[in-house]
Design a protein that fits this description.
2 copies of one chain form a homodimer. Chain A has helices at residues 2-7, 18-21, 28-37, 118-127, 129-155, 158-175, 189-196, 200-212, 228-235; strands at residues 39-40, 49-51, 59-65, 68-73, 79-85, 90-91, 104-107, 112-117, 182-184, 216-219, 222-225. By secondary structure, the first copy, chain A, is an alpha+beta fold. Chain A folds into 2 domains: 2-142, Jelly Rolls (Sandwich), CATH 2.60.120.10; 156-246, Arc Repressor Mutant, subunit A. In chain A, the strands form 3 sheets. A 4-stranded antiparallel sheet of chain A has the order 1-8-3-6. In chain A, strand 4 (68-73) and strand 5 form a beta hairpin. In chain A, helix 4 (118-127) packs across helix 5 and helix 6 (158-175) packs across helix 9 (228-235). The interface between A and B is large, with 39 and 39 residues. Chain B binds a DNA duplex through residues 157-158, 188-190, 198-205, 207-208, 220. Chains A, B: InterPro entries: cNMP-bd_dom, cNMP-bd_dom_sf, Env_Response_Regulators, HTH_CRP, RmlC-like_jellyroll, WH-like_DNA-bd_sf, WH_DNA-bd_sf.
DNA sequence: CGGTGCGTTGAAACAGCTCAAGGCTTGTGG
DNA sequence: CCACAAGCCTTGAGCTGTTTCAACGCACCG
């Protein structure tokens, strides 16, 4: 297993995403213990599934590189997109309820993950109270994200939704220390539309408008933010109500 | 403290909501230990707050009777309604992230709750692994509820949203062993509208229609379901696509 | 008994959807 | 390496469900 670790040149201690993954930080000795249970497999190819709905729940997964989409199907067979996950994000909590995953997790790009077998993790978390707390915090953060998503769907119109989505992605890259005014985003517009409760046509029209207004362009998986302030403003982040006109 | 318990004639062991509160059940000895940390205060009056956004996070709360609304305000000052909670439901997890509650929890009716001080609860949960598991399960169930809410907002039109909301409430009463075709629902239509991402006018029109069609009536906080099948059908629960016409 | 907040109803406006057709990528097989 | 197919994106025109605005009724509470 140590070979494997070195093969992937990875350990929790050296991982730049540690602060995102388990935010408030653990003691070095505790990190080492966590490290011992982490399994790092070879990366997933694009369109490969990390797990599928109905599979037995075994692990939660921390994403190290790439991007993952969580989705499922409604009773009527429509695809529901639950969210997009980036390096440092943790997925798999949907498996906790029924001891089987509720959603499908698919790689949108070449993606590598850290596999955290849950029985070992929860055993360890009994010995490291802080870890237990971390897990709860990560989960409750996820709950809050969900609430933000609902707020978006309830209160925002199409322009605001798209702007907020792009800015949200940018901010997540920012928090991870990556460039955020210009980044790769391997998400289909179709999937964004599903996630935002819009049609692909509407998303397309709005992106065309944003591009024409030199606010942001998103072409061929490449996002470039030209006017951060305006983008945030449309998204409803800033409280400046005046500059709205400019859009 | 024992006096207080007997005063409210309550203990986790005797509580009829045990299965809802911590579903898969704990050993009797463990329940007693849980019981010891539960504080039961005098009931909240209508419109009193159980907690408010920004308050220091101290406890999670299990609702014993009444109803609670969770809400907050968006950056632009709009009210966001996050959900409605009934006896057996647990609220307060929003406090975990920042060690302060994120939302406001207000009683919609005279409401009594069991107060579970979180530091004691998490200490106890280290000693009772199953309890720890229960907490995670309750949380992940909440996450799933949130997802269902998003799905509703993304995929369903106004009729379906209202129907699904009412049926969802009915089902929750059913699960608790109460009458579910006729029950009290002390939620303002205004609040339902906010929760469903609709306007009060739209909700009103739809309820009028449902009433005219003898599907369900909701007047003066009293819900009566006349045609369960049709209601479920409109809500998109049943898979029978044919009977749709009848509506 | 009059106010205040909630619910109802109607008419008009509009945001986003649907349907349709065409263009552009990307991947695959000859 | 080219040709072709499949999937995704774009653009336009018309339609429809929901909102908006406004006015009124009703119930509850002081």
């Amino acid at each position: 297993m140590n070979e494997m670790k070195s093969a992937f040149n990875a350990s929790c201690f050296n991982c730049g995403l540690q602060k995102i993954c388990f935010p408030t930080g653990l003691l070095k000795t505790d990190i080492d213990r966590l490290d011992d249970i982490v399994e790092r497999k070879s990366p997933l190819k694009k369109n490969q599934h990390l797990y599928e709905a109905g599979q037995k729940f075994t692990s939660i997964f921390a994403i190290r590189a790439g991007a993952v989409k969580l989705y499922s199907y409604s009773d009527l067979g429509e695809e529901i997109v639950h969210g997009f996950y980036l390096p440092g994000d943790v997925v798999g909590f949907d498996g906790l309820i029924e001891n089987a995953y509720l959603y499908n997790a698919v790689a949108l790009d070449s993606t590598s993950v850290c596999n955290l077998p849950f029985d070992q993790l929860s055993e360890l978390s009994l010995k490291i109270p802080n870890l237990n707390q971390q897990i709860l915090t990560v989960m409750s953060k996820k709950m809050h994200d969900g609430r933000m998503h609902s707020e978006l769907l309830i209160k925002r119109n199409a322009d605001q939704r798209v702007a907020q989505f792009i800015w949200n992605m940018a901010e997540r890259y920012k928090n991870r220390g990556y460039a955020y005014d210009e980044f790769r985003l391997s998400i289909l517009h179709r999937d964004v539309a599903l996630y935002l409760g819009l049609t692909p046509e509407t998303v397309s029209r709005i992106l065309a408008k944003f591009n024409a207004d030199h606010i942001v362009s998103w072409k061929k998986k490449e996002v470039i933010i030209y006017n951060e302030k305006l983008l945030k403003n449309i998204a409803g982040i800033s409280s400046c109500e005046v500059c709205k006109e400019a859009g």
